[in-house]
Write a structure and sequence with these properties.
Blueprint: H1 3-31, H2 35-55, H3 60-86, H4 92-100, H5 106-123, H6 125-132, H7 140-168, H8 188-205, H9 215-227, H10 230-241, H11 243-251
Helix pairs in contact: 1-2, 1-5, 2-3, 2-5, 2-6, 3-6, 6-8, 7-8, 8-9
Amino acid sequence: MDLSQIGYTLCMNLVLVTLLMIVSYFFYLVERKGAIFDIAWAGGFMITTIVSFLELDGYFWRKTLLFFLVILWSCRLGSVFFRRYLEKEEEGRFAAVRDYFHAPQEWKFFLLFLLQGVAIVVLSWPFQLIASNPSLTFSALEYWAILIWIIGYIGEIIADTQLREFKMEPANKNKVCTTGLWRFSRHPNYFFEWIIWIAFFLLAFDAPAGFTAIISPILMFWLLRKVSGIQAAEEIAVRTIGQEYVNYQKSTNAFFPWFPK
């Protein structure tokens, strides 16, 4: 593994993703829609993948596989966020963040954009390991990783679709979705998102220093559980739905799917 090449790619990723976050923040100042924050999230991984593909000298077909998986995942995620951006009623967590970071504290929201950029670069570490792996054959672990990625990708699509269809019914306004995958987990979309990052870690594992890619699923687990995912979503759900959601919390696992109590 060429450390100088890896270091150059890291720096380029950090610079380009930071520029994306700055531009996204200015779009936010104009539009005042927090969904831009998530759109920038999806776009950041496109940048780190393209840079890794172009700058690192690993096996071409492995780099191509990585490029396909990340771009496919990023485009789907970005389309979900863009649809939310177009909605007239802003998602609760965005409205809460916007209201909290009012002037003169708005500069703190800018710091959140910059910190998101740093998180994207750290989470993209497996991409660099995969794209620099010189091995000319795919290992059994990599084939398993592809299968796990497919499971995570399809599971996330199903979870998002089930929730969207539930919310489209006017009678379900301020009610809890407990059908499909949402019967077994309060956040199956986040669980399958995490599975995708487990797959990226496994894809990187056979590369030189591949074990260090474990930082990505660990960081993603923390972000989903404690930062921008479950904790924020559930605070809003309890306020808007009330006791019905509290009962849902008591009966259904927050993250890992399991049979309800």
